[in-house]
Structure formats: C-alpha cells, structure tokens
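pls design
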C-alpha cells in the first residue's frame, strides 16, 4: 500500500497546483471497479485512491464532531480524492443537476451514520444543482422510498463496526436493504454480499462511498451486540469511489485496534472474507493493500495504519 500523510495546508497547495487527469486516475479506477466493469489488462496494476481524514475535535452526544468540522473533513477528503481544489467543481464531477440522488445511510441506533454526515453530503449535492425534492436520505425504507425508486445516483455512507454475520458491517454490506429478505445473503459468513451491487436498483449508480469512523465498534459477541468498552474515538472518515478499497482500509484499522486492545491477533467472531471475495470473486473493487493508494489527511495520533 502506498501511504502519504499530508497536512491540510499541504493538500490545498497540491490541489490548487494540479487538478490533473493523472490525479484523477486512481479515483476513477475505483469508480470503474465499483460498477463491476473489468478494466483492460494494463489497468489491473493501477492503484485505487482511498482518503482517510481525521480531526481531533471533541465528539458530540450523537457521536460526531460539530457539523462544520464534519463538512470540512468531507470536503478535504473529496478534494484529495478527485484532485480538485474547488469543492463545487469536485462535486460536479460526481453529480449532475438532472440526477435523482439517494443517500444510503445506516440507522443502527448505537452507531448511526449521523445527521452531520448526512447533511454535509446533502448540502454538496444540492450545491451541485440537484433540487431538494430529488434527494432522499434513507436506510431501511429504500425499497419504498420514491426517490430511491427513481434514483440515478447513489451515495453510500455508513459507520464501520464488527458484525455477527459478516465479521464487519461496512460499505459493501450497506446495500443489503435493497433486498426484501436480507437474511438470504447470510450464507457462508455473507461471502457474496458484493452481488448486491449488481441489483438493478444499485448497479452503476454509486458516485461516492463514505465509511464513517468516528466511533467504530471493533468487537462484538452475538447479533446486534454493542458495548461501550469496544468502541473508541477514532474521529475519522474514509472516502473512496471504490467501496471494496474503503472497506479493506477500514478493516485494517479495526484489526490493528483489536491487536492493541487484546494484545494479540485475535480474529473477529466471523471472518469478513466478503471484502476479499468482492475483489477476487465478484470484481467489484480492490482489496489488496498493495493496489491501494492511501492518502492520509489531518490528525495523526493513534491513526493505526
């Protein structure tokens, strides 16, 4: 994995100097993989860009930094992902004014996506020219939501946490609410969750993936388990066009936290092999760290990766 840590000031200097095609290529390669389209043989060696941004600001009662901090974190991540200093121009490469946009969130009561993230995304979608009545934010009601039924673009945003059936619940799994019977995908530790991304309601629509790492859950026992001792204030967002690369990066952080907490390489209760299989079996994106360009922005203390 290629790692780069830059300050916000350094990043803005770079972005202002070179919003070039070369800077866009790693991000757009992630978009190609996420649509399920295999690239040319030469493209197989291109790296997918993933941006990890963190901020040390205190978290509020809902588990998120202040709204203005979340907006800044998201904006910095999108700029770095796309190599574009102007945030309005960056979003206009993702979203068209004529789009109908569904923001697929996650409403698990202990660690939700957070209103701050949802509203930061919605704000930029509206500034890209999409009317408010053409934007929906939903989780469990996506199949009944008229915006999602008509959507031409999706933004995928959910928190990272350990999960009883899939090892971890993250971006790949977040589309499971697009099927009427989610339990049908639980076989073999949810090995084939990537097939969700081929559903007509989803295929080819995802423009951005945001893995929320404000307070990840790194350990659990049993369905819907939550314990405060197994969450920590990581205060981060992972952003990519490629959901597999983002999930693989988040998983490495979870594994590093587990090792630091337990003192050994203790495996998750269920093996999260759906992330690797999303790459090797279903060709949804990239899971190999050697093919991921990780750009790290902001707060470095306790970064774990």
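designed seq:
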């Amino acid at each position: 994995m290629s790692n780069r840590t830059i300050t916000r000031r350094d990043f803005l200097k770079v972005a202002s100097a070179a919003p070039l095609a070369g800077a866009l290529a790693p991000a757009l390669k992630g978009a190609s993989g996420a649509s399920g389209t295999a690239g040319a043989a030469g493209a197989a060696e291109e790296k997918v860009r993933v941006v990890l941004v963190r901020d040390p600001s205190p978290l509020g009662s809902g588990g998120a930094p202040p709204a203005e901090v979340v907006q800044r974190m998201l904006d910095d991540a999108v700029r770095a992902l796309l190599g574009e200093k102007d945030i309005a121009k960056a979003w206009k490469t993702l979203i068209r004014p004529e789009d109908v946009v569904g923001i697929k969130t996650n409403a698990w009561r202990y660690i939700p996506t957070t209103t701050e993230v949802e509203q930061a995304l919605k704000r930029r979608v509206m500034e890209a020219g999409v009317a408010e009545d053409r934007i929906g934010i939903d989780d469990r009601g996506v199949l009944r939501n008229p915006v999602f039924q008509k959507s031409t673009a999706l933004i995928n945003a959910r928190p990272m946490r350990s999960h009883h059936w899939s090892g971890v619940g993250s971006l790949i799994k977040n589309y499971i609410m697009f099927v009427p019977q989610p339990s049908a995908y639980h076989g073999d530790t949810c090995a084939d969750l990537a097939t969700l991304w081929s559903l007509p309601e989803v295929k080819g629509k995802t423009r951005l993936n945001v893995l929320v790492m404000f307070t990840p859950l790194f350990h659990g026992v049993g369905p819907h388990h939550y314990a405060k001792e197994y969450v920590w204030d990581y205060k981060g967002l992972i952003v990519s066009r490629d959901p597999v690369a983002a999930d693989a990066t988040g998983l490495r952080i979870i594994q590093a936290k587990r090792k630091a907490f337990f003192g050994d390489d203790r495996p998750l209760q269920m093996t999260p092999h759906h992330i690797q299989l999303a790459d090797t079996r279903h060709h949804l994106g990239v899971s190999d760290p050697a093919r991921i360009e990780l750009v790290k922005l902001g707060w470095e203390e306790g970064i774990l990766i």
